[in-house]
Amino acid sequence: xxxxxxxxxxxxxxxEKIELGGxxxxxxxxxxxxxxxxxxxxxxADRLRGNDAERDRLAAIGVKAFGHESK
Length: 71
What we know:
Helix content is 77%, strand content 0%. The chain is extended, with a radius of gyration of 16 Å. It has helices at 2-26, 34-48, 52-66. The longest helix has 25 residues, at 2-26. The chain is mainly α and 71 residues long. The relative contact order is 0.06.
């Protein structure tokens, strides 16, 4: 059972990482350096803390980019 649980957790982790990479590509940032991408994400995380208006603004941009999807 434990081995099966560990395998399932690894598969889930891998799937999440693939999906996150897809978001980077969808945003048009596929060829940017990793340090720049990490800097963007850290800066965004800092700006989002306690700022519901900014969170809503960025979520609206994402919803528009996805089209009818709302992930």
